[in-house]
Amino acid sequence: MTEIRTGRRKYYDVFSHFYDFFINAHAGRHRDETRAFLVDSAGLEDSSCARILDICCGTGSVILAFADRCPDALPVGYDFSAGMLKKARRKDTGGRIHLALGDAARLSFGDDSFDIVCCSHALYELKGEVRTRALQEMKRVVKPGGRVLLMEHEVPEHPFVKRLFDLRMTMMGAADAKEFIDQDISVYRAVFADIRVSHTPSGKSRLLTCRK
Questions:
Q1: Local confidence pLDDT in tens for the 212 residues of the chain
Q2: Nearest of 148, 126, 124 to residue 138 by alpha carbon
Q3: How far apart are the C-alpha atoms of 138 and 149, rounded to whole Å?
Q4: Phi-psi category of 78—alpha, beta or left, where left has phi over 0 and alpha has psi -120 to 50?
Q5: Residue 119 buriedness (CB in 10 A; 0-12 / 13-18 / 19+)
Q6: Residues facing residue 84 across a β-bridge
Q7: Could you say which of 3.90.1150.10, 3.40.50.150, 3.30.390.10, 3.30.428.10 is the CATH number of the domain covering 3-211?
Q8: What is the pTM of this model?
Q9: Of 93, 94, 55, nearest to 77 (Cα)?
């Protein structure tokens, strides 16, 4: 892992203590709706023993939502921050999910290992070549016919949350921030043959459903 990535990992270890507050401030009363929309989009109603990978899983809220909906599934949360995984482990009081520490650009799984791969409200923070490698890794580990679900925030309207959002955009760098705000998906089209864009009912998030 590069020095820059190591520094960001330390940042997220600290940020893990405030992460849920930030997400709750942005999502507000739409928090559960957004997670339900993501889980519904996986199309797992008729699937048993599905293998689900949540990359950049943070404190585990999304992968736990999958575990709630699909009790027979194998849910795996993956993050490069030990602090985030520690928070996720505390939430998983029933021991329903598996957690792994690692880099999104170098997934420690074999080809075609998962029915669903998702990354929720995190991918935009990966920059340039790292993000491209992460997308290629997602494509590699998802099964043929499986889905890669990429969910990101829309630009928030609430003044306080918008200030926090702008701060994070500044940390990304001008080019990466502009690409996100303009909702440019060309980087995704360079990796996936089939992409469908949808939006949560509240309009707070958009979802890219990708296939090989």
A1: 444 466 777 777 776 667 766 666 655 566 688 899 999 999 997 777 899 999 999 999 999 999 999 999 999 999 999 999 999 999 999 999 999 999 999 999 999 999 999 999 888 778 788 889 999 999 999 999 999 999 987 766 667 666 766 666 665 554 555 555 556 788 899 999 999 999 998 888 899 999 99
A2: 148
A3: 10
A4: beta
A5: buried
A6: none
A7: 3.40.50.150
A8: 0.83
A9: 55
Specify the pairing of strand 205-211 against strand 194-199. Answer: antiparallel
DSSP-derived 3-state class of residue 68: helix
Residue pair 43/64 in contact (Cβ under 8 Å)? The answer is: no
User: At residue 47, what are phi and psi to the nearest 5 degrees?
Assistant: -105, 135
Residue with tokens 């880099």: 103
Beta-carbon count within 10 A of 82 CB? 13
On the CB side of 168, CA atoms within 13 Å amount to: 26
State how far the Cα of 142 lies from the Cα of 117, in Å rounded to an integer.
6
Given a contact cutoff of 8 angstroms between Cβ atoms, the answer to whether 26 and 204 are in contact is yes
* Amino acid identity for residue 207 in this structure: L
Give 188's contacts (C-beta < 8 A, 6+ positions apart).
135, 150, 195, 208, 210
Calpha distance 165→48 (Å, rounded): 38
* Tokens 């609430």 found at: 158
